[in-house]
Every structure is written in C-alpha cells, then in structure tokens.
Amino acid sequence: MTETKMNGAESLVHTLLANDVDVCFTNPGTSEMHFVAALDHIPGMRSVLVLQENVATGAADGYYRMAGKPASTLLHLGPGLANGLSNLHNAKKAGSGVVNIIGEHASTHIELDAPLTSDIEGIARPVSHWVRSSKSAQDVGKDAAEAIQAAMVAPGQIASLILPSDTAWNEDGEAQEAIEMPVPAPFDESQLEQAVAALGGEETLLLLGGQALTESNLEIAGKISAKTGCAILSEWANGRMERGVGRVYIDRVPYPIDLALKALAPYKRIVLIGARAPIGFFAYPGKPAILTREGAEITKLANAGADLTAALAALCSATGADDTPPAHVSEPTQAVRPTGPITLEAIADLVALSIPENGIVVDESLTSGRAFSPATKGAAPHSWINNCGGSIGYSMPTSIGAAVACPDRKVMCLTGDGSAMYTVQSLWTMARENLDITVVVFANRSYQILRGELTNVGVGNPGPRAIDMLSLDRPALDWVQMAQSMGVEAQRVADCETLDAALEDALANSGPNLIEIVL
Amino acid sequence: MTETKMNGAESLVHTLLANDVDVCFTNPGTSEMHFVAALDHIPGMRSVLVLQENVATGAADGYYRMAGKPASTLLHLGPGLANGLSNLHNAKKAGSGVVNIIGEHASTHIELDAPLTSDIEGIARPVSHWVRSSKSAQDVGKDAAEAIQAAMVAPGQIASLILPSDTAWNEDGEAQEAIEMPVPAPFDESQLEQAVAALGGEETLLLLGGQALTESNLEIAGKISAKTGCAILSEWANGRMERGVGRVYIDRVPYPIDLALKALAPYKRIVLIGARAPIGFFAYPGKPAILTREGAEITKLANAGADLTAALAALCSATGADDTPPAHVSEPTQAVRPTGPITLEAIADLVALSIPENGIVVDESLTSGRAFSPATKGAAPHSWINNCGGSIGYSMPTSIGAAVACPDRKVMCLTGDGSAMYTVQSLWTMARENLDITVVVFANRSYQILRGELTNVGVGNPGPRAIDMLSLDRPALDWVQMAQSMGVEAQRVADCETLDAALEDALANSGPNLIEIVL
Q: Where is the Thiamine pyrophosphate enzyme N-terminal TPP-binding domain (chains A, B) (predicted)?
C-alpha cells in the first residue's frame, strides 16, 4: 500500500483497516477534517456519528466487549477527548481495548495557545495505557499500528494517538500492513500447586473475572466446583459474562458493603483467576476496605491479562475434574409471569422471561436491579455486561457499541433514570443507526443509591436540602418525549401487564425503542 | 468559628460562605455525602443540582462572568471531574474563576485501586491553575480559602481542591474566616510611552479584551478613539462585553481566517489592553497563523490579569482625551420588524428588537449568528457573552450560571442545535430552578460550521460519507419535545411572524422556555 502517494489521514485509515479496526465512533471537528475526507473516499470503515463524545468512548467499550477487537474513536482536540474521558475510565477498568484518534492543532500552531489548545497528552494519560503524539505524516501509519497493538494487550488497553493536523494533511503518509497482535501472558504456573492445595481444603472460593467468564471457561469452573466442592463467584462488576439456561451459573460478590462482607466471610482460601482480591467499592467510616475474612489465604493464579483459559484448564486437570460434569448448571427459569403493580421482583421476573435467545443485556440498573442476577440465571442464553468503572452513563453508549459489534443479536439496556440522563444523546445515534436496542429506564426519579450511601457514610436523618440533591422529581423527566425527540419510539408503563406487553412488542421488532417504567 | 467541633465537610462549607462563595453547582456521589449533609444543616449555600457535570462547570463559568466572584462545584471523584472538563477548559480560556471541590476515596482506600479510583490530580491539572489534595480534615478550611484566593487571581482562575472522604468525615475541621483576596496586577507602565506614540500615528488599532469591555472602560476607549483616530476592536471571543444603545460599540476580530486577515490588514500599530496578539483559531494549510500584518508593531500595555481600568485611564489622560466625547456610541437600532420567511438577517434583526433592557445574551450561534454583532449594536443595553475556549456545549450551562448570578435580569441563550445537544441536560436544571432563560435553538440540522471548515482545510467536493458525518438530519431532533421532556415550555417557529411572537411571549414571562427555529 505504500507505493501510492497519500496523506497522513489516508495512511491512518488504511492502517486501521489493514489491522481489522473497521468501526469509528466519532464527533469530528476542524482539526479532523482530513480524516473525515479520508473516510469518505476509502471504503471499509463504518463511521458512527455521536452527539457527545462520551457516547463514542462508551460505544467503543461495548464494541470491544462483544467483538473482542478494538473500535477507533475520532475526537476533536483536548475538549473532545475530555468529553469522552469518563467512559474511557470505565473502559479501562473493564479491560476493554480502544484506539482513540485525537486531532490536534498543526505542530506550528500549538505554541500560539489558540482557544482550543490544551495539554492533550495530559488529559489522555490518566485514562490511557498508551499515549503518543505523531511527529510527522510519515509516522502516522506506524504509530497507528502500534496504537492498535497497545489496545490489544490482554485483556484490552486504552491507546490514545494524537495527530497534529499537519500530520494528517502532509502527503508523505505510509500505511502499515497487518502487524502481529499480542497474545495473553502465561498464567502463573508457580501458583498452580498452591491453588490445587487450596481447592483440596474446605471453605475455598474460586473467584473469577474477565475472560474466565466465557461459556466454556465457566463450564470448566463448574467442573472444578463439582469435583472439589469449592464455591465459585465472580467480581461485582464484569466486562462480560455468559449466562442463562444450560450454562454454569455464578453469583457476583455483592455491591453493598455489609452484604459483600457476609458473602465472603465463609472463605479461608481464595483462588483468583482473572479477578482481583475483593475490596470495597467505597470506604465507609468504621468498616473494612478489604472484604475477605481476616487471614484468608489468597492464591493469585492468573491476573486479567493472563491466559485464563489455560489457567482454568490446568486447574481442572490438576484437580482431576476433566471428566466431572459441571455443577451449578442453570435450569430453565421457573418465573411465573407477574401481574398487577410493578415491584422490583416483578421486573426481575419479567426481564428473565423477556431476555431473547442470544441477547445482550447491558446492566446499569443499580438499586432497581439488585434482584436481577439470581432471577435471570435460567433465562435464555445471553451475555451480561456490567459497569466496571463506576462512572454512571455507561449503559446506553455501551449498548450502541454492542449492537454495532453484533448486528444479529438483540440488546437490552437496563438503566436507572439518573444514569441514562448522563449520556442521553445516545438515543439519537441508536435511531440514526437503527440499532436493535431496547432501553428500559427505571424511573424512580432519584439517585436512589445515594440515599443508602448517605446512611452508609454515617449521615442519619438527612434534611430536605440533602434529599433534594438526590431527587430527580422536580420536574419529573418524561422519557417518552425524550426518546421521541431523538427519533426513538417509546412508551411508559405502570403495571406488569403493560410492561410485559411493551417488552414483547419491543423485542419482537428490530430497531431501537425505549420503555419507561415509573417506579 | 473554630471553637465548635466540626468535621472537614462542615469546615469547607463555613469557609466557602465566609469568603462569599455561596453557590454550588453539583452532582454529588457517595464520596461527597458528608458535604451534602453539611450543606443540609448549614444555611446560606445555594445548591443547584445538575444531571451531568459539564452543566455544573459551565454554570460556574457563567456565574463568574456575571457575578465577578466564583461559584463552587461539587464533583464526584475523577470521572465526575472528567465529565465537567471541557467547560472548565472554556472557563479557563475565558478567565473565569471557579472553585472545584472534588471528592476522592478515603486516603487509605486510594491504594486499593477501587473501580472509581483514578488520577484526579492528573485529570484536573490540564484545566486548572491550582490543584491541591487536602491531607487531613484540619487542612480543609485553609486549603479551601487558598483555593478561593487562587480562583480570584485576575482575571479569574480554575482552582481544583480534592478532598479524600476521610478529610470530610473526620472531626477536627477548622473553618477559615474571610481572607484577603488578590487584586489585579499593575499594567505595564513602561509601555505607556510607546502606546501613546502608536496612537499618535496612522493606521493604529486599540485591541481590547477581558475587563476592558465594561461599559465605563469602553467609554474610555471611545474617547481615545475620538481623540486619536485609532480604530478599536475586541478579540473574537470575549468573556463578557457590555453593549447596546448609548454604549461605545466595538467590533470583534472575525472568526473566518480570510475575514480576520482582512480586518487586521490595515493596522501598522496595535496596542493591546487585556487582549492577546491575534492568531488563527485553527491552522489552515498555506495560510498564516499570525493574523496581524507583517511587521506590525505590537505594544502590550496590559494583559488580561492586569488592572485594565487603570491602563485605559492612563492612556486616555496621556493622549489628552479626558474631555473628548467618545466615538462609536451606538444609536438606537433602526431595524425594521422583518416578516415572511426566516433568514439569518431576519433573525439578527428580531434578536436586536427583542433583547430586553439589561438582558444577558449568551451566544453560541456559530454560523447562524455571524450577523448578530452589527445588527444588535443599537439594541437595549445588555451584556454579551462568547465562548472563549471553542469547546461546544457551553451556552446553556453558562446561561444557568448567569441567571443564578443575576436573578433580576433576563437571559437569552442563542445556540446552534449541535452545540445545544452537547449539554442538553441543562434544560432540566433551568426548569428545576425556574431560571429566567429563553433558549433559541438554530436548528440547521448540521454541524454547518464544519462544512466551511472542510473547504478551508483544502478538502474539495466532500462525498456522502463526509457530509453524513456533519449532518444532524437523520433523524431530525425535535427540540419542542426535548425541552418539554425536561419540563421546559417550548415552541417551534418557521417564519418571522411566529418567531417574533414567540420571542415576545417568552421574554414577557419569567421562567425558562425554548424556541426552535427551523432553518
């Protein structure tokens, strides 16, 4: 590809495509116009326009989780990157690979400190594993290839490539061919013996995360559990977990601090595969931050960047479980179709009954969804996605990325109203791309989770000003109008029958729609 | 105030109030719950809830521009700050003072790398002049007072104070009394002689920015212009400019590169008061970045942080203009009430006729508003606010801050549709606080400015994929439904008569409303 004369922007697009990065979530500006032009005449890149950059970065996160390869983002200078920073934080914590392309002023222009000039590397660094500013058009192809390599380091990394506009418009670009991508590191074989010994004892937990939660790896974990009697759990937040009927069910370490302590108290020995030793989401006055029981023996067999399939296979063989049928295989859900007033339990049952075969559930339901995990274990087989970074507003963007990655699968986005407002612009992109996403908004008209947190941090009897800071009911948000204003069909439901019908209707049709559940 | 036992959060609130910081734009989370509790039982702080942090930071920007003192923001850890980063960038470029309070995990929790852990100082630094993490509850009061001092350094600075949650909940807080605030630096008297000499010559421009654009300072500039024959211009983007009938009118250096070069070409000598030497907003291939004519003599009498009133007064006396009546005083607008189809010229006339006495205009009209400046020079006296950082989505948040700062003044927010979508969550806060803001959305259903920029950077004949990345018409946004979904009254207009009536209606009533102009 290097024989034809091309500018830096064209070399970028060719290099991305040669290395299988063929989706770009973007909101471009002046400094990115040459990339827009290059995308125009070089076929092969699916460009998805978003109306605020946190939608782009969250979409890239969801894309990686479902496609297993990075998408690119194309962002307008420091402020465009800044707008997408919090979902890059979430992506980083989820172990998702993302290739950010950030336009910058021409090299000669930066020192003039124009209005849009900022320290782009400084903004990128806190959320990036890899940051580089290209020095010339000639470097862009090579730099882009290395950015993709960096993004593919297991489990996935954030790579941010900053391209001064002269590196885009100058004519000595050199596209790179497909280059070799990194493979996961070996797991820590030196810990295998200790892990086997731990599993030979009582009160042992196998704690899983990341790629240990694929269908086949969970099956191996189920075998080990059946053979050794160990418990299995996952971390509270998982990038992606395969679940549903016929698959090995695994519960999550709970979010609420007291429940988490209780869930982990039984275990003297913990073997980690792709998970970290459990800690509190927040610190609370007078409560421990380390959630495991005092003196628990923790064996780190494999971190999230290691070959977790190999780790589980080795552990399975070493415990003699290869021929043991797995434990914890989910039976079909026994949920009875609920009727009458909507309760959180009824919603959980209706979600369980509604999840479509091979569906993708993006979960940002927070307090409304605490009952979802056990209730849905016998639902149709599906992928379940959590927020791993704790910054709200991840679910609609992530749903966009998942839907772009898997056009043949239906996406259910379960979100609180406060969270959904953070990246409400997502609805427009869902409509524009006609993505097969059903957004279910739990409209409790409050940051409900914070009412509990106020108590947890020791604030009793909050007064009206405090409660007001956690309330979204003045005025109430009208989610039906909101969705329709951006071209997404929507309805509001207030009892189980209409919710049931709305879910059935939404999932029977393709394209985006929204259901507001007034709680 | 130090005799009573209080926690760090309480010492913060007392210190802010003692130093006249009595507004807080916030979206708090768990790590900020003690501040929420403190705001609850300590009267005096107006807390304004927003649904996304870029609304909070943009509001703080607008508040400073109109109140001349900083508001605080209360943000949830690194991601909460990250969400507000781009409007902090704009505030920084505008010379607005902001006191950011950013919650952080308890000191002992940070090293555990919980989901929400991030490098908060790293995220804050690119947009902040001053960054500090408090070490203990005892330090919080002192640190907060210094943050306010830092924010008040002329023309205004971004101060970011990071408070680990244990510094909020520990009980040895010490509130600070009112402390001395910084005053503007002296202007550069050594340049006065050269400035006077320049003004004695031909083809001289007095270029103004920042606090040089108050009503009284503009009057002085008008006297100097009348006496010496110099031209006066302001920078393209101004934090705030006083305009309207009876005031000295000053044109802005245009945004489009060719127009800017043309506007500045006549001047051999330029005297800067609160302005920087003009440079291009972007670099364009084959065009200069320095906008002044080659060899122009530039005299820097006072930068934005200096005492601009003193600089202008000294220059006025030194040129013997003290008793000269000012030139360029605006006559009442002669605009004839337009009828029929909406054109950009008609909108400009209707805006000029509608600006209320003592109104505040927040301008993010971009391509739709290129005719506004001359058309509105004879409107009723008003303040005009520009975006100084170039990151779109500043106008609705800034309008919120302006309305909170000036409850007796009407705010007109003139915004493109693409810009408005960036911080569309603002509408809810306008409704919640019943702010007297009329939002006028110019719905051209495109990033129109970028179509021009595509040409400017040398991309001819853009194809359908490029055009598609700049288009917002698939689907069209319904701004009436959008506003109503967040509790703001709205109407759509498509001709001059209905626009005229809508503006009259909107401005006759208090409270927020939105007018969508379909272009």
A: 6-111
Residues of B in contact with A458 (CB under 8 A): 169
pLDDT for B335-356, tens place per residue? Answer: 899 999 999 999 999 999 999 9
Q: Please answer yes or no on whether B482 and A485 come within 8 Å at the CB atom.
A: yes
In 3D space, the residue among B335, B440, B320, B330 whose CA is nearest the CA of residue B382 turns out to be B330
Residue A125: pLDDT band (50, 70, 90) is: very high
B96 lies in the same domain as B237: no
> pLDDT confidence of A173, banded at 50, 70, 90?
very high
The count of domains in chain A is 3
Whether residues B361 and B279 fall in one domain: no
B232 CB-contact burial (10 Å; exposed 0-12 / middle 13-18 / buried 19+):
buried
| Mean pLDDT along residues B318-347 | 96
Does some domain include residue A196? Answer: yes
Burial class, B499, CB count within 10 angstroms (exposed 0-12 / middle 13-18 / buried 19+): buried
Render pLDDT for B133-153 as a digit per residue (tens, 0 to 9).
999 999 999 999 999 999 999
Residue in A29, A127, A289 nearest the CB of B450: A29
What mean pLDDT is predicted for residues A389-405? 98
Same domain, A145 and A242: no
Q: Who wins on pLDDT, B54 or B449?
A: B54
| Full residue range of the structural domain in which residue B145 is found | 8-169
Search chain B and give the residue with CA nearest A85: B82
CB pairs under 8 A between A and B: 301
CB contact under 8 A, A30 and B125: no
Q: Do A469 and B165 touch (CB under 8 A)?
A: no
Query: Any residues with CB less than 8 A from the CB of B514 and at least 6 apart, and which?
Result: B427, B438, B439, B440, B441, B479, B480, B482, B483, B488, B489, B490, B491
Contact residues on chain B for A113, CB-CB shorter than 8 A: 279
pLDDT at res. B454: 84
3-state secondary structure of A121: helix
Question: Is A70 within the bounds of a domain?
Answer: yes
Q: Note whether B209 and B307 are same-domain residues.
A: yes
Sort strands A241-243 and A204-208 into parallel, antiparallel or unpaired: unpaired
The pLDDT tens digits for A185-202 are 999 999 999 999 999 999
Pairing state between β B269-273 and B251-252: unpaired
Contact B39 A466 (CB under 8 A): yes
* pLDDT score of A384: 98
Say what the pTM is.
0.97
Residue from B32, B83, B235, B428 to probe the interface with A (highest A Cβ count within 10 Å)? B83
Asked if residue B278 and residue B215 are part of one domain, the reply reads yes
Q: With respect to residue B330, please indicate whether it lies within any of the assigned structural domains.
A: no
Q: Are residues A125 and A157 in the same domain?
A: yes
**In chain B, whose CA is at the least distance from the CA of A94?**
B115
Tell me, yes or no, whether A162 and A193 share the same domain: no
Q: Are residues B389 and B449 in the same domain?
A: yes
Would the CB atoms of A37 and B425 count as touching at under 8 Å? no
Summary mean pLDDT of chain B: 95
Q: Is residue B333 part of a domain?
A: no
- Between CA B235 and CA B209 the distance in angstroms is 6
CA distance A516 to A481: 11
Question: What's the average model confidence in pLDDT over A275-299?
Answer: 93
Half-sphere exposure of A478 (CA within 13 A, CB side): 17
Chain B residues near residue A481 by CB distance under 8 angstroms: 481-482, 484-485
- In terms of phi and psi (left: phi > 0; alpha: psi -120 to 50; beta: otherwise), the region of A113 is left
Q: What is the CATH number of the domain that holds A395?
A: 3.40.50.970
- Which of B78, B83, B282 faces A30 most closely, judged by CB atoms? B282
Mean pLDDT throughout B35-60? 96
All residues of chain B having their beta carbon less than 8 Å from the beta carbon of residue A54 are 83
Beta-carbon separation of B468 and A125 below 8 A: no
